[in-house]
Amino acid sequence: MRDVFLSNCEKNFIQKLVSEGHRLDGRNYNESRRLDVTFGSEYGSCIVRLGETKVLAQVSCEVTQPKQIRPNEGILYINVEISPMAAPQFEANRQTDLTVYLNRLLEKCYKDSKCIDLESLCIVVEEKVWSLRVDVKVLNHGGNLIECASIATLASLAHFKRPDVTRSGDRVIIHTIAEKDPIPTVLYHYPVCMTFAIFNNEVLLSDPSFIEESVCTSSTEEGINTGGGLLVIGMNQYKELCLLDLNGAALYDSNIVHKAIISAAESSKQIVDLVKQRINSDDTMRQKRIKINFADMITSDHLLSLTRKDLSIQLKKFNVDDMTLKNDMEHEDNDDEPEPSKYDGKFENKVMTIFEIYSLISVVPSLPQTAEIISNKGVSKWIEISSDSD
Amino acid sequence: MELETDVVSHASGSARLRLANTDILVGVKTEIDIPKPDKPDSGKIEFFVDCSANATPEFEGRGGEQLANSISNMMQKAYHSAEAFNLKQLCIFEGKQCWKLYIDILILECGGNLCDAVSLAVKAALFNTRIPFVKAALMDGGNIDLQLSDDPFDSKLLDVGTAPLLVTLCKIGDKCVVDPSAEEENCSVISLIVGVTGNKRHYYPNHTDKQCTESKCTTIGMNGPGSVVSKTLKDAIKQGIVAAKSLDEALGQALLKERQQNIGMKKHSYGFLK
Amino acid sequence: MGIEEEKPKAFQLKPMKCEFNFLSKSDGSAILSQGDTVAVVSVNGPLDIKSTSQSIEKSTLEVLYCTKGGKPSVADRYKENVIRQTCEAAVLGSLYPRTGITVTIQELEDFGGLLSCCLNCTCLALLNSGVSMRCTYAAITCAIDESGDIVLEPSKQHLDTARATMTFVFDSREKNLVTSVTEGVFSEDTYKEALARCHAASDLVFNFYREIIRKYANVI
Amino acid sequence: MAEIYKLIHPLKYFNDYISREIRPDGRKFHECRNIKLNVNSLKTAEASAVVKCGNTTVVCGIQLELASPKAEEPDFGYLVTNLELPALCSSKYRPGPPSDHAQVTNYLVSNIIVNSKCIDLKDLCIVPDKLAWVLYCDMVCLDNDGSLVDACIIALISSLKTLRLPTVTYDAETEDINVDPDIRTPLKVYGLPVATSFSVYKLPERDILITDPSIYEEEMCGGIGSNFIVCSNQSLLCGTQKFGGSNLPPESQEEALKISRDRANVVEKVIETCLANNCEINEI
Amino acid sequence: MPLDYRRFNGPEDSVSYKRYTNKYYKGYDELYKELVDDKGRRKDGRALDEARSMCMFFARTDLISQAKGSAYIELKKTKVVCSVFDPREIPHQNEFSQLGQLYCEVKFAPFSCAQQRRPHVDAEDKSLSVALRQALEPTVCRHLFPNYQVDVFVYILEHDGACLAAAINAAGLALANASVPMYDIITSSSVAIIGKKVFVDPTEAEEHLAMMSPETEGTNHGIITMSMLSELKQVSDFVQIGSMDIECVTEAMDILEKECENIVPNIQKVLVHNVVQSFNQRKQLEAEAKEREIALNVKMEEWKKLLNAG
Question: Looking at the domain that runs over D33-283, which CATH code has it been given?
Answer without folding.
Answer: 3.30.230.70
